[in-house]
Amino acid sequence: MTRSLPASGLQGILSGATPPGLYRLPPAEPPQEVMDLAAEADWRAARLRLDGVHDKAAFLRRCAADLGFPDWFGHNWDALADCLTDLSWWREAGKSRGYLLLAEQWEAFSKAAPADARTAEAVLADAVDFWAEGESPLTVLLG
Fold this sequence. Notes:
By secondary structure, the chain is α/β, with parallel strands linked by helices. The chain contains 6 helices and 5 strands. It has one domain: Barnase, Chain D, CATH 3.30.370. This is Barstar (barnase inhibitor) domain-containing protein. Belongs to the barstar family.
């Protein structure tokens, strides 16, 4: 499901040389640098900060807060999938070349709530697959 970031790194994803996907971000990649590179490449990017997140409810609350989900978000796995396959809440005027979601402190969340992290990862992977063939793909980096 989740792969290591290929040798081409983030630049490969942003340029289209590497296919969109669900990737592990090496710990040496500073989150703000990832956001800056995405912006320079005309990708819409968001940070999901998972520090202190230890269960499903906290994960979904953090998604809603950090990603700016719409009011209709129902705080369950199905609603998360709905938000990630309908990115109208994330779009701005104009078109982005792609969407990048950086989930920071993923390992800590995964250790604290392994079953919830596996479910979240599956939802994220399904969303990546949903957008893979579109003009503006979604890539998720687990940091």
